[in-house]
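Predict structure. Chain length: 120.
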Amino acid sequence: MDWSPLIQALIAVAAAAVPVIAGKLWFWLEEKIKASAVARLGAAAERAAGQVIETITDPKLAPALADARQAAIDTATMAMQRTMGETIEKLGGSPKQIEAMVRGEIGKLLARQPAPSATP
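Prediction complete.
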């Protein structure tokens, strides 16, 4: 029995399936890379927020807290742009969005801190 027609048919089916499978694999891979970039950006925002918390909770800064807070946020935002610039650009992020991420992370960190006691 001549298996050539069957083998040719299987090769044709496989040849048609490869681009479809490759396309789906490529889409999956792009999504994984993007998710990884977003996670790295979130971690960077959390680190930046931690540095801001250190600055704004310093008792020596109480009188100028608002100015110190904004200066610390600006510094953290610039540091993120400097260290994560390529990732931010690939994700289409803006400086305002990065600042908002830092502020959000600050809020999370402040929410975790215990409330100050009214009694010494």
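Summary: The mean pLDDT is 81.
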